[in-house]
Amino acid sequence: MIRRALAAAALGLVTAGAVACGGETAAPGTAGAFTDGGSTASPAPERSRLSPAAPAAGAAIAASPASAAARPLAGKVIVIDPGHNGNNWRAPEKINKKVNAVTMWKPCDTTGTTTNDGYPESAFAWDVATRLAKLLRAQGATVKLTRKDNKGVGPCITERAAIANRAKADASISIHADGAGQGTRGFHVIVPKKINGPVDPVVGDSLRLGVAIRNAVREVTGLPYANYIGKNGIDRRGDLGGLNLSTVPKVFLETGNMRNPTDARKMKDPAFRQRLAEALAKGLRDYLSR
Questions:
Q1: pLDDT of residue 34
Q2: Along the chain (290 residues), what's the average pLDDT of each consecutive run of 10 residues?
Q3: pTM score, two decimals?
Q4: Catalytic pick from 46, 121, 254, 278?
Q5: 3-state SS string for the chain
Q6: How far is CA 266 from the centre of its chain?
Q7: How far is the CA of 30 from the CAs of 20, 27, 116, 279, in angstroms?
Q8: What is the dihedral of CA 25, 27, 31, 34, to 10 degrees?
Q9: Active site (annotated) includes residue 219
């Protein structure tokens, strides 16, 4: 995969100073602003409702466990980190406790954001994560999630990174949605930068993972790149504990802006969430096959 490394100059990467998503505590259904922080393939046209892709020809053959083609991720370990948790808002004393994120001290976790009509980021992230896990396991991967459901609290950002580190994951992805101004929209992938900390040795591989995820999301879903942060769908940051503490290749996906009506409508659509999971599976497969 090193032969395919992309120069940062070609990507036009920029560093943004935005605050991680879920910057304040809010109960589900309440308003609050949260900001979190080019594929050469032609993207799929944007649609308000996207149906899951039809099975490819020969799917019955590909489903055979004996077929190597059916299990392209056999032997790979992938950790999926669904952002936040459904009951974080009930435990401010826990999630507001400060933890060491290497470059600064930050809250253990946050509540995340919601759409204007109350659909929570935590529920969105959980649904996409479970769909993605099913797809990856069907392709032979060992998949671990950083939380078991959307009914609990936490874990802290430090533990989310530690779970992937202990698993010696080949790749890790944290799934989020942003909460910016209503007039802004689009997705972006956050990749780590060198901070003289644990993540430094995997910054290059994390960038390659981020580019693969970005390209797949753009191609499969047709979502536009964020028009308010980063450049060409990529944003480099050194203030996120979940990235700073990672010793394995890891990225954050900010799927879109939940406060934007167009993005929110897509994220509330189960068919879109399935298509997004398929895009993430493709991006992970593309990265791990190099």
A1: 30
A2: 37 37 41 35 46 43 57 97 98 98 98 98 98 98 98 98 98 98 96 98 98 98 98 98 98 98 98 98 96
A3: 0.80
A4: 254
A5: CHHHCCCHHHHCCCECCCCCCCCCCCCCCCCCCECCCCCCCCCCCCCCCCCCCCCCCCHHHHCCCCCHHHCCCCCCEEEEEECCCCCHHHCHHHHCCEEECCCCEEECCCCCCECCCCCEHHHHHHHHHHHHHHHHHHCCCEEEECCCCCCCCCCCHHHHHHHHHHHCCCEEEEEEEEECCCCCCCEEEEEECCCCCCCHHHHHHHHHHHHHHHHHHHHHHCCCECCCCCECCEEEECCCHHHHCCCCCEEEEEEEECCCHHHHHHHCCHHHHHHHHHHHHHHHHHHHCC
A6: 16
A7: 18, 6, 8, 30
A8: 30
A9: no
Q: Under the phi-then-psi rule, with left for phi > 0, alpha for psi from -120 to 50, and beta for the rest, what region is 102?
A: left
Q: Which two tokens stand for residue 86?
A: 């459904």
Among residues 280, 261, 230, 182, the alpha carbon closest in space to that of 38 is found at 230
Q: Give the residue carrying structure tokens 């479970």.
A: 130
Amino acid at 139: Q
CA angle 206, 136, 256 (to 5 degrees): 60
Which of 21, 54, 12 lies closest to 235, judged by CA?
12
* Distance of alpha carbon 240 from alpha carbon 259, whole angstroms: 22
